[in-house]
Amino acid sequence: MTHGSNSSFLSPQQRGPTITVGEILVEIMATTVGSGFREAQPLIGPFASGAPAIFIDQVAKLGAGAGIIASVGDDDFGHLNIERLRGDGVDVSAIAIIPDTPTGSAFVRYAATGGRDFVYNIARSAAGQLQLNEAAKALIARAGHLHVMGSALSMPAAWPIIQHALDDIKSRGGTLSLDPNIRKELAGGEATRQQFSTLLAATDLLLPSGDELFIACPDESEAKAIEELLKSGICGIVVKRGKEGSTLYTAAGSLHRPAFIVEEVDPTGAGDCFGATYLTCRRLGLSDEKSLDYANAAGARNVTRQGPMEGTSTFAELDRFIAATPRN
Ligand code: ATP
Ligand code: MG
Q1: What dihedral angle (degrees, nearest 10) is formed by the CA atoms of 118, 296, 152, 32?
Q2: Interatomic CA distance for residues 313 and 269, integer angstroms
Q3: Which run of H or of E encompasses 47?
Q4: So what's the pLDDT on residue 1?
């Protein structure tokens, strides 16, 4: 099956910035491979982090309009993040600073198996105190595209903001992308499942990795799950396959593009950079093939840097990386 259409199913960039709602965190990582944090060990950080924050930083680095609705504490961890995002061109007007509450954090340690263990402080940190205030409403009113990360649903306060943004942006001809981004430590209950199904019903672009395709269609083959999702009204599905690259599926067919060959230093953030780059390229009018290649490059380049937000890329950096790096 080859892909037969390049027509974009995302709103063009001129319609307004891409925005997201969700957690801003610092990440602190173990420098040794092993399991968990039940003993003293060497750590490195703090690094700017939070899947929605990495995502929106990557959108801004590509020179496209980008904003985030989030909250941090009035502490060094919070200011580290705000200054990074502002410096990279993100609209930070809707990041609330919550006094007397610490900024969210994630401790991560890589296991020998390649898996990751996390200790999170999100929902009860400043990150969880999201507010639909005037600044958030104003950002939503300007936006042309909403991107939702499943990880944000671990904060109950995010949902009413996402709903408001979805209604407002869609009613003005904007579009929605969804990265399920489910972590075992954050998997929610029935409420989260309901929120996922509400989002899936409005999703234009789905960006799953690993088993995440099966959130909507458990017990199906990958092909069957994709068929069902496309039939339900999703226009494009891009499956992220790590070292195997990525594949776009639409009603017109599929298009696979291979990954770049790199040495993986830190896998966290690859999916966020990938999604940001793919949808920004599409919103800027680039072809499916170019958009997938730039997205694969953004994911691969990110894993060569330690720290989840340290490897976000400009177009100039991606062009140099693509010219210099072999593909699988
Ligand atoms: P995350 O851990 O950030 O949630 P993800 O599981 O959502 O990541 P991945 O498939 O790991 O997404 O990575 C997204 C894209 O980045 C891949 O499709 C691939 O193009 C690129 N990528 C990720 N890891 C590597 C790697 N080790 N080598 C080359 N490319 C990679
Ligand atoms: Mg992911």
Answers
A1: 10
A2: 12
A3: strand 43-49
A4: 44
pLDDT in tens, 272-318: 999 999 999 999 999 999 999 999 999 999 999 999 999 999 999 99
Q: Note the pLDDT tens digit of each residue in 149-205.
A: 999 998 999 999 999 999 999 999 999 999 998 765 556 688 888 999 999 999 999
Q: Return d(Cα 290, Cα 34) in angstroms, integer.
A: 38
How far does the centroid of ligand 1 lie from the alpha carbon of residue 271, in Å? Answer: 5
Could you tell me which residues are beta bridge partners of residue 68?
Answer: 20
Q: How far apart are CA 59 and CA 62, in angstroms?
A: 5
Q: Is the pTM of this model over 0.90?
A: yes
Q: Which of 209, 241, 264 to mutate to test the pocket of ligand 1 (most atoms within 8 A of CB)?
A: 209
Neighbours of 197 (CB within 10 A): 12
Per the model's pLDDT, the better-predicted residue between 1 and 73 turns out to be 73
d(CA 267, ligand 1 centre) in Å: 7
Nearest to 314 by CA among 3, 142, 96, 64: 64
Q: Which residues pair with 208 in a beta bridge?
A: none
Ligand 1: does its nearest atom lie under 6 Å from the Cβ of 110?
no
Closest Cα to atom 18, ligand 1: which residue? 240
